[in-house]
Amino acid sequence: MQLLQTFLTLATFILPLVSSEACVAGGPSAQVSFAKGCCFNNSGTWYQFYDQQAICIFPDVLASAYKTCVGYIPFSELNTVCIPGDGGVGLTTLTATETETGRVTFTAVAAAGVTGA
After folding, report:
1. CA distance 82 to 71
2. Taking a C-beta distance cutoff of 8 angstroms, is the pair 47, 59 a contact?
3. Distance in angstroms (rounded) separating the CA atoms of residues 62 and 18
4. N or C: at which end does the chain have fewer Cβ atoms within 10 angstroms?
5. Which domain holds residue 12?
6. Rounded to whole angstroms, how far apart are CA atoms 104 and 33?
7. What percent of the chain has pLDDT over 70?
8. How many domains does the chain have?
9. pTM score
10. DSSP alpha helices (H): ranges in the chain?
11. What is the mean pLDDT of residues 20-29?
């Protein structure tokens, strides 16, 4: 019984991560700031370490609303890439690349026959 209780407790912490989408917004700092408002309007959590790049994590069900909001940025140069909580179609393995500055980049390799949107 205790094993079941432990599993259920663990599942309550993991489930929100699986049902969330992560979007990276990169571009001019003013447009990244606009995306921050879109993130908060869609119950998102905002992570920003650089003026020109940030990550928003929000519930999967609000993905289209976030993308629509970001789409309203006038003369947008914002580059937005989103990964759904289930990993998305065609994501198989991740490759980590580290630069001289210490920044680590994860690149998803698409499955055979699957092209990007």
Report:
1. 14
2. no
3. 14
4. N
5. 2-85
6. 23
7. 57
8. 1
9. 0.60
10. 2-18, 29-41, 63-71
11. 89
